[in-house]
Amino acid sequence: MSIDIIFKIAAIGILVTVLNQILIRSGREEQAMMVTLAGVVVVLMMVITMINNLFTAVKTIFQLY
């Protein structure tokens, strides 16, 4: 695991926050909510992939099948 994933998640968070604030100030609250949800889903997909890799590594190390 590298530190790049932390920077990717932070970049997505910053981008989503900026887009959310711009959309809220322009009166598009519904689209701001959709952008926020999309950001959360993208980050969750990244984290779920990492957790899957972790469980696969644990199974391999302890030979659990």
From TrEMBL:
The chain crosses the membrane at residues 6-23, 35-55. The keyword Chaperone does not apply. It comes from the Bacteria. Signal peptide: none annotated. Keywords: Membrane, Transmembrane, Transmembrane helix. Pfam families: SpoIIIAC. NCBIfam families: spore_III_AC. This is Stage III sporulation protein AC. It comes from Thermoanaerobacterium aotearoense SCUT27.
